[in-house]
Specification:
By secondary structure, the chain is mainly β. The chain has one domain. Helix content is about 15%, strand content about 35%. It is built from two helices and eight strands. A five-stranded antiparallel beta sheet has the order 6-5-4-7-8, with no helix packed on it. Strands 2-1-3 form a three-stranded antiparallel beta sheet, with helices on one face. A hairpin with a 2-residue loop joins β5 and β6. The longest helix is centred in the first third of the chain and has 14 residues.
C-alpha cells in the first residue's frame, strides 16, 4: 500500500485528547550551560578565538566560521540592559492581572531574554543588570533558575 492509499483510510477528525508526548533535550552546549547555572551559579558562554565572539547562551559551533567551540568562559552574573518592554497581555492575548517587565540582557556577544525586577521608569538602556538566581537547593537546570534580573546597586 502506498502512502497516499494509506492516508485515504486515516481518520479525518480526532475526538478527545491527542496522546502526544515529547522530551526536550538541551543538546551538548545547553546541557553544560544549564548545569553550570544549576551547580555553580554561573552563566557560561562559549568563545570562538578565531572570530573573537562569545556566545551566550553557549553553542557548540561558531555561526560565523563554523568552527567547533571548546573554550568556555564565565561571563558573570552582571550583563547590560539592551532593551525592554512592558507586557500587558499573556501569550494567548489575555490581559495580565499585573503587567510584566521583560528585557534582553547582553553578555559578551549574546544575551538572555528574561523578567526584570525593576520599575520601568528607572530603567536605562545600557545599565548593568544582575541575574537573581534561585537558591542552589531549588535550581533544576533550566532558564527558570534565574528568577529575573535587577539593576545593580550603585
Amino acid at each position: 500500500m502506498t502512502l497516499l492509499e494509506h492516508t485515504k483510510n486515516a481518520p479525518q477528525a480526532w475526538s478527545g485528547n491527542l496522546p502526544v508526548t515529547s522530551r526536550y533535550t538541551y543538546g551538548l552546549a545547553g546541557e553544560r550551560f544549564f548545569r553550570a547555572m544549576k551547580d555553580e551559579g554561573k552563566i557560561m558562554g562559549s568563545y570562538c578565538p578565531k572570530c573573537d565572539h562569545t556566545y551566550v547562551p553557549a553553542t557548540v559551533f561558531c555561526e560565523r566560521c563554523l568552527g567547533e567551540l571548546s573554550e568556555w568562559v564565565d561571563v558573570g552574573l552582571v550583563g547590560e540592559l539592551h532593551t525592554f518592554t512592558v507586557l500587558f497581555v499573556d501569550c494567548d492575548g489575555n490581559p495580565l492581572e499585573e503587567p510584566e517587565l521583560v528585557g534582553l540582557i547582553t553578555f559578551g556577544d549574546g544575551g538572555i531574554i528574561h523578567r526584570l525586577e525593576a520599575d520601568p521608569d528607572e530603567l536605562e538602556i545600557g545599565m548593568p543588570m544582575e541575574a537573581v538566581l534561585k537558591p542552589k537547593a531549588k535550581r533544576k537546570g533550566s532558564i527558570l533558575d534565574i528568577e529575573g534580573f535587577r539593576a545593580v546597586s550603585k
